[in-house]
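Weekly modeling sync, notes
Attendees: S.R. (lead), two postdocs, one rotation student

Agenda item 3: backlog of single-chain predictions. S.R. asked that every request posted to the team notebook include the full sequence so nobody has to chase files. The rotation student volunteered to paste the first one in as an example of the format we agreed on. Action items at the bottom.

Example entry:
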Amino acid sequence: MSSTSSPSSTSSNNENRAHSKAVLKSLQNGGSKMPKKNLALRTYTSLAHWIPLGIDMFIDFSLTIYAAIDPSDEPDEELLSTYEAICTLEPRITDILKYLNKDPDQLTSFIRECEEAINGARSDDTTSLKPAVVTYVL
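Predicted structure, as returned to the notebook:
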């Protein structure tokens, strides 16, 4: 039996590595301030926008990510369950986090970009409730 990997797995690994590098480049060049055609980071900020709408409205994204990257002796099952739900929506996030974990500053930047999207989604929800509350009160 040979120890070489199949061409499809090698191709997949190369694609994941290229995608990870594109995300890192996006973070280094200004993150979400970059033009909209930069899809590498936008994939994850769009995902983050939907997390409070579809997974957990009150998610602490950084806690969830750090729990998944470095599970302690007694991992928080709720955080890991939330992380698994996120991975269901975007399986490549695991590879991105492994890649970014090599540089804590870039990992922090990635988390910050995603948290901005999460907070934006919460703000949008709150803003849409204001007229309904006024109508209900009156």
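Discussion: group reviewed the output briefly. The mean pLDDT is 79.
Action items: rotation student to repeat for the remaining queue; S.R. to check formatting next week.
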